[in-house]
Specification:
With about 350 residues, the chain is mainly beta. The chain is built from four helices and 22 strands. The structure holds calcium ion (3 copies).
Length: about 350
């Protein structure tokens, strides 16, 4: 605020002068008993009565008038919002199918409030393949990669108004001898069409692979497949595919059609080819990865009887005509088991 006008008036008689000084000539013209000093910038903010006793009186305006004429200092500005501080962690190298452990760090001044919180996102800036983050919203998380090469990943933090980001370079090397793989189970039924899943990483979507089952080093089954995505292969197998493969345990391997390293299960686990009805083996526990033993015998009958009239998916091996026995262990399953009772 500033003084727009200082008005001195005789009582009930407006009489104004320019701010801030009253011309001296006016003071000597006449004497008034009382003056009112007003300071205003559109509205009166101060109003005080003064008395002039003689022509020579010098009226000193009181501090409330003078202070009211001072510019009012502006309110202190609100604290300025600082952008979040982001560190995406050190550059690193991993080997397929290994995951990169992303160790980010984010801090902020808590402004603006609301929201008073920072949200973060991991994203891929560059790189030859797909990146999957375990939790892209977490500061610390893991990332897996569909192909080898150099990737730049970015951690972005936003406080609701300002964003910051930092990049980290990940060098992804191809696995020695190819990527290790794992299977969704360790058996195939020779008398049932099914889809067998192979999990790994770095599978090319443009290059076919050959899946082989070998016994004693001799190939008994092979099929050419194209990966579903960089991490998954789905192999559809029908009884006719497996017609030439006898019941038993097989080594499974994967190789590009163009050649290159043979990929095997890293723990050397074998696939059991067996028939519906082979549910169990003597002494098997739920912790066994492979309950089946390739033989259909009294252990399997025992297993089926303990599950009789239940919906056990393992023992429900025969849906019966028109599917009337699907989802239930009953006489149709017993018939199937007995029909395969030759092993
Ligand atoms: Ca902030
Ligand atoms: Ca068995
Ligand atoms: Ca059934």
């Amino acid at each position: 605020m500033k003084i727009d006008q200082l008005i001195l008036t005789r009582e009930n008689t407006p009489f104004s002068f320019e701010h801030p000084f009253m011309p001296a000539s006016m003071w000597n013209d006449r004497k008034y008993s009382y003056f009112y000093a007003r300071v205003y910038d559109g509205v009166v903010t101060t109003h005080r009565r003064y008395e002039q006793r003689a022509y020579s009186d010098v009226i000193e305006l009181g501090p409330e008038v003078l202070l009211a004429g001072q510019p009012i200092p502006p309110p202190p500005p609100p604290p300025a919002n600082e952008a979040p501080s982001v560190n995406a962690g050190p550059d690193q190298s991993v080997t397929l199918p290994g995951a990169a452990n992303l160790d980010g760090a984010v801090s902020d001044d808590g402004l603006p409030n609301p929201p008073g919180a920072v949200t973060t996102t991991w994203s891929k800036v560059s790189g030859p393949g797909t990146v999957i983050f375990a939790n892209a919203s977490a500061v610390d998380t893991t990332a897996i990669f569909s192909a080898d090469g150099t990737y730049v990943l970015r951690l972005t933090a936003t406080d609701g108004a300002l964003s910051s980001s930092d990049d980290v370079a990940i060098t992804v090397g191809s696995g020695v001898g190819g990527s290790p793989i794992s299977f969704d189970r360790l058996h195939l039924f020779a008398d049932k069409s099914d889809t067998f899943k192979i999990m790994g990483s770095g599978f090319s979507l443009t290059e076919d692979l050959i899946f082989r089952l070998k016994s004693g080093g001799i190939e008994k089954f092979s099929k050419t497949i194209r990966p579903k995505d960089a991490f998954t292969i789905e192999l559809s197998v029908s009884p006719s595919d497996l017609a030439s493969a006898p019941i038993g345990f097989y080594d499974a391997e994967l190789q590009k059609v163009s050649g290159g390293p043979v990929i095997v299960h890293p723990e050397g686990k074998q696939i059991l080819l067996t028939k519906l009805g082979d549910l169990w083996k003597r002494g098997a526990s739920d912790l066994d990865e492979q309950k089946r033993d390739g033989k259909i015998d009294t252990d399997d009958v025992s297993r089926m009887l303990t599950q009789w009239n239940t919906a056990d998916p393992e023992a429900d091996i025969n849906p019966g005509p028109s599917g009337i026995s699907a989802g239930k262990v009953d006489i149709f399953d017993a018939n199937k088991l007995m029909a395969n009772w030759t092993l």
